[in-house]
């Protein structure tokens, strides 16, 4: 079997599935190694990026999916049920961000970070298939843990959570910044006190000289 036929088989599998197909499934069908399948899919993804194609192959964690290119959305949506679906609220986006950056987090931990109850938001995110249960924590009560889904990755155009932007290192930088700020303030205060002391000495000296001169004149 040559590479052209291998590409055709992968193309048929992805098209027929209509959803993500794990790379292990493709490996099993073609009897190829992980590296060989990754190489073929890499070539296919480059080929589909050409402008003469209206579809593309995206990677989602250890799976691949064939889908239409987003730039052709306006031509596609009229042929489907275009009922408006509810968007994500700011609370949902906030909760999603917390879960994405903290996989296997519990509701209590989410509540602690947000400062409000998150039951309703979590229910909606589960309904939208943006998050899923990730087992139970080994703690009293064995609370449920949550993580984001492949649907989340596809919605935000990510191949994996490794592509999330890095969070600013506020916790590490703030103490040092505060310490530096405090040190600088102490220096300024010391300088101001020194200046005030010098001014007082000058005033006292001038007053003494003036009094001495007055005494001499008398």
Proportion in helices: 55-70%
Radius of gyration from the alpha-carbon trace, in angstroms: 33 Å
Question: What about the largest sheet?
Answer: 3 strands, antiparallel
CATH fold call of the largest domain: Arc Repressor Mutant, subunit A
CATH architecture of the largest domain: Orthogonal Bundle
- Structural class by sheet pairing and helices: alpha+beta
Average pLDDT works out at: 80
Number of domains: 3
**Strand line-up of the largest beta sheet:** 1-3-2
What general outline do the C-alpha atoms trace? globular
* CATH class category name of the largest domain: Mainly Alpha
Tally of strands: 6
The CATH superfamily of the largest domain turns out to be Winged helix-like DNA-binding domain superfamily/Winged helix DNA-binding domain
N- to C-terminal distance: 122 Å
Question: Helix tally?
Answer: 9
Order of SSEs: HEHHEEHHEHHEEHH
Uncertain residue ranges = 171-175, 177-189
Q: What is the percentage of strand-forming residues? A: 5-15%
Give structural notes.
By secondary structure, this protein is an alpha+beta fold. The protein folds into three domains: about 5-75, Orthogonal Bundle (Arc Repressor Mutant, subunit A), CATH 1.10.10.10; about 90-165, Arc Repressor Mutant, subunit A (Orthogonal Bundle), CATH 1.10.10.10; about 170-218. The protein is about 55% helix and about 10% strand. The protein has nine helices and six strands, in the order αβααββααβααββαα. The protein has helices at about 5-15, 25-30, 35-50, 75, 90-100, 105-115, 120-125, 150-155, 170-215, and strands at about 20, 55-60, 65-70, 105, 130-135, 145-150. The strands form two sheets. Strands 1-3-2 form a three-stranded antiparallel sheet. β5 (about 130-135) and β6 (about 145-150) form a beta hairpin. α5 crosses α7. The relative contact order is 0.07.
């Amino acid at each position: 079997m040559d590479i052209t036929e291998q590409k055709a088989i992968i193309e048929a599998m992805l098209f027929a599935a209509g959803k993500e197909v794990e790379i292990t499934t493709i490996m099993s069908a073609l009897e190829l190694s992980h590296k060989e399948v990754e190489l073929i899919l890499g070539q296919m993804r480059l080929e589909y990026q050409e402008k003469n194609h209206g579809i593309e192959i995206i990677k989602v964690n250890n799976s691949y999916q064939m889908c239409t290119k987003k730039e052709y959305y306006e031509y596609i949506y009229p042929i489907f049920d275009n009922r408006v679906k509810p968007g994500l609220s700011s609370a949902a986006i906030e909760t999603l961000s917390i879960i994405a950056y903290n996989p296997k987090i519990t509701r209590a931990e989410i509540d602690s970070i947000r400062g409000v109850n998150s039951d309703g938001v979590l229910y909606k995110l589960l309904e939208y298939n943006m998050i899923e249960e990730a087992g139970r924590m080994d703690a009293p009560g064995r609370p449920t843990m949550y993580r984001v889904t492949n649907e989340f990755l596809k919605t935000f155009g990510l191949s994996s959570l490794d592509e999330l932007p890095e969070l600013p290192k506020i916790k590490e930088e703030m103490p040092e910044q505060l310490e530096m700020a405090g040190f600088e303030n102490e220096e300024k205060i010391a300088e101001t006190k020194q200046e005030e002391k010098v001014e007082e000495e000058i005033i006292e000296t001038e007053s003494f000289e003036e009094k001495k001169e007055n005494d001499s004149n008398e």
